[in-house]
Amino acid sequence: MRFWTVSLLVVLSVIGIALSDANNYFFFAGFVVLQAVVLASAWNILGGYAGYVNFGVPAFVGAGAYTALSLHLSFEAPLVIQILAGAIFSGAVGFLVGLLTVRLRGIFFSIATVSLVFIFETLVMNSSFLGGATGHQLTRPSDIPFFDTYTRYLVVVMVVLAVISVAAARFIQDSFVGRGLRAVRDSEEAAECSGVPTLKLKLLACSVSGALLGAAGAPMPMYLSYIEPASTFNLLYAVSALAMPIIGGMSHWIGPVIGALILATLQQIVTVTISSEMNVLVVGVLLVFFVVVAPDGILGLIKRWKASSK
Amino acid sequence: MESILQITSVSKHFGGFTALNGVNLQVGAGERLGLIGPNGSGKTTLINCISGALVNEAGDIHFKGEHISKLPAYQRTRRGIARSFQIPRPFRSMTVLENLLVPLSYVRGISGKEADEIAEEILSGMGLAPKILSECSQLSQVELRKLELARAMAAKPDLLISDEAMAGLAGAEIDEVLAILLSLNDQGITIIMIEHIMQAVMSFSQRVVCLDAGQIICEGTPNEVVANEYVQRAYLGD
Amino acid sequence: MFFSWELFFEAILFGILLGGFYAAVSLGLSVTFGLLDIPHVAHPAVLLMGAYGVFLLGQYGLDPVVAGLLLIPLFFAFGAFFYRIYYSIFESRGGDNVAVNGLAFFFGIAFIIEVLLVIFFGVDQQSAEASYIGGSLELGDLRIPYRLIVAFIVAISAATILSAYLSKTFYGRAIKAVGQDEGALRLMGVNPVSVKTLAFGIGTSVNALAGAVLLIVAPVEPTMDRIYIGRTFCVVVLAGLGSMSGTVFAGLLLGITESIVLMFFGTSWAPAVAFGLLLIMLGLRPQGLFGR
């Protein structure tokens, strides 16, 4: 109950800020940070809980974004429909990727997911409908519900998605599904012999993770008023999505949230004050640092500190 | 004794290598069966085909009258086949107790307090009571083996396959594990034991089967099998 | 799409040369990932380091191939040192998330290398200069660029030498064995960690020469490592882990396929070829064509 109370408060606060006079820049940045929360939580369902490292996050996010674009171009579909469609399509891609796990573990699975990024990018580049390599412009609807700017509206949408994503992770973690996934991660063979339907659980984790990633990608064309393949299918997002749960801690749903808030905010600050190249360095360094020094993330550090102070 | 497990003409190949070649075996309900054979004879492959970790290419496996050859491993566990692994595979991110909660919820659908109680009971029965809340990394070899068996027991199996549960253990520890297996059999559980430790196999089994190069070369009482010339040749070479 | 047999054969020829090149840049990975099972997604980044190192020496007038050969000892030392660090961090520790962490580590390293290259060399493309870059061999109507021939020769030589070392010398065979049976090595009195250090050093030093080949074939820029993840892993997976001759064959297969796609479908489809082949291979036969 406490979770939902806090979530409701968070959503209401964001709505409040969106209705206020705050500087427009905060909303540009806020969208990115909240999107990071969705990505990190979604990634962790498969990566942290089940132990399958998805390095193709841009493929799923991009799939959501381009699905949204297609619906916008073909039917002028409202944003909510775009998001739903993006989620369904990416969820289906997730399901197919889940089928791959029957044969592929560890690095092979990760390499397969990277392959998707480049394959999707190539498909988009060869599609004139989707804008090809040069990309596609979009016009935002002029009729904005409730808020001064469309970006503020998108921020509210994104915070709702963030709550949904975190809630999904929390639900899976606390349910018997969560324990089953941990068994899969610790030893798939032993899990099967303990009655765990490993394939079904992996398919569930892949589909849910994929769907949430797609939902996070769907508002992007509207956010940027523009979409093109090179920046959408950028491997930097793959590394960031991986870094955030590792920094925060992969064993609990709050870890990715912490990691996302810290890293995404840091990235915004660095991009604005130094350069976007430094952005890449920050992610790389933090990732390596945490993997080497604190592989259980900030949550792990807190646990160790608590245990030692007893 | 009616048979609980029927293996008929089961074969399994890996590339060009034949691991199992037309194996026929019947196991009676409540029986204590010893499975021996030199390394590479196909014992683990046979176990894997029974438990579902591998799928046999030819032949059939029937368990409690049901044809299980095409079932995935978790379904076979739910029907009553449990196994331990040669190299223990505990769920390392979970405590000893939590390890048992997995089969309790996924095989028997029991969770919450009831599950905790049943798990504690099983673990106490194996002498693991003081380690119930420990992390797996804090367990000794023999304790890990016991955890394997405890976890298999939590699934309330009708057939338990013990895959070299005593390998690498010292004298008193072997006796401990042996006593556990005997008491489980007393409760009516059919046990197939794979072991290299001959004294254990001899004292435990009612019947012994010897595999070599993917085929059964001898079947009978422990004394008969050990005296058999083919068995001696298989182990000692020509 | 216009098909002609002439174009087809030209594509095949070009593909063979390209394939030799792909084999060269994947050899190091065949050792580090193929034989040692290390999730070395930073291999293409190290390859780029080799290319930029050669470029740097080129500024002082050194021929790329010579520069590549000179850098081999330096890269070997770097590789051996790096493996010791990797070993003490990952392979000697246990822990819950070893697989995730190893992979994440190398992704992080790859990106750090990328950024450092941008800082030192800038984002623009850099190329090498040599007598054989720019000219072509003329055979009838075909023009075969000299640089591709040089790359091909270097590639095949390196592959042959490496393959011979691994099958004919004691330590070479130890490297082949260490991925599969550490225990046996220990029984022979050989320290597996030393063997792995040697292997990782060799795998890294090949990148000095392979980097030279990369620079000879085309201009380089710092984010190139990303697409080479696909190409190199495609070759190594296609070959089957640990097979050096398989690496050459798989490189040729990739080169020819990419070349044909390039010729008849255009450059916009070429990037997907390596990844597409990789995905198909992983889906159908993960152990590769010649795998162990």
Question: How would you characterize this protein structure?
Answer:
The complex is a heterotrimer of chains A (310), B (238) and C (292). By secondary structure, chain A is mainly α. Chain A is 77% helix and 1% strand. In chain A, helix 4 runs antiparallel to helix 9, helix 6 crosses helix 7 and helix 12 packs across helix 14. Chain B is 38% helix and 26% strand. In chain B, strand 4 and strand 5 form a beta hairpin. In chain B, helix 4 packs across helix 5. Chain B is globular. The model of chain C has no long low-confidence stretch (mean pLDDT 86). Chain C has 292 residues and is mainly α. Chain C has a two-stranded antiparallel sheet. The interface between A and C is large, with 47 and 41 residues.
Give the topology.
The complex is a heterotrimer of chains A (310), B (238) and C (292).
Chain A: H1 2-19, H2 24-49, H3 57-75, H4 79-100, H5 106-125, E1 136-137, H6 150-174, H7 176-186, H8 188-193, H9 198-217, H10 220-224, E2 226-227, H11 229-232, H12 235-248, H13 254-273, H14 276-293, H15 297-308
Antiparallel strand pairs in A: 1-2
Helix pairs in contact in A: 1-6, 2-6, 2-9, 2-12, 2-13, 3-4, 3-5, 3-9, 4-9, 6-7, 6-9, 7-9, 12-13, 12-14, 12-15, 13-14
Chain B: E1 3-14, E2 17-28, E3 32-36, H1 43-51, E4 58-63, E5 66-67, H2 73-78, E6 81-83, H3 96-106, H4 112-125, H5 141-154, E7 159-163, H6 171-186, E8 190-194, H7 198-204, E9 207-212, E10 215-220, H8 222-227, H9 229-236
Parallel strand pairs in B: 3-8, 3-9, 6-7, 7-8
Antiparallel strand pairs in B: 1-2, 1-4, 4-5, 9-10
Chain C: H1 5-35, H2 43-58, H3 64-91, H4 98-121, E1 136-139, E2 142-145, H5 146-168, H6 170-178, H7 182-187, H8 192-217, H9 225-239, H10 244-265, H11 270-284
Antiparallel strand pairs in C: 1-2
Instruction: Characterize the biggest β-sheet of chain A.
Output: 2 strands, antiparallel
Termini separation of chain A = 30 Å
Oligomeric state, counting identical vs distinct chains: heterotrimer
Shape of chain C: globular
> How widely separated are the two ends of chain C?
40 Å
Largest sheet of chain C: 2 strands, antiparallel
Q: Helix-strand pattern of chain C, N to C? A: HHHHEEHHHHHHH
The count of strands of chain A amounts to 2
Main CATH class of chain C = Mainly Alpha
Largest sheet of chain A, order of strands side by side?
1-2
Cross-sheet strand order for the largest sheet of chain C: 1-2
Please write the string of helix (H) and strand (E) elements of chain A. HHHHHEHHHHHEHHHHH
CATH topology value of chain C: ABC transporter involved in vitamin B12 uptake, BtuC
Average pLDDT taken over every residue of chain C: 86
Task: Give me the secondary-structure category of chain C.
Answer: mainly alpha
How many individual domains of chain C?
1
Instruction: State the helical fraction of chain A.
Output: over 70%
Strand content of chain C: under 5%
Please give the most extensive interface between any two protein chains, plus how many residues each contributes. A-C, 47 and 41 residues
Q: Class by helix and strand content of chain A?
A: mainly alpha
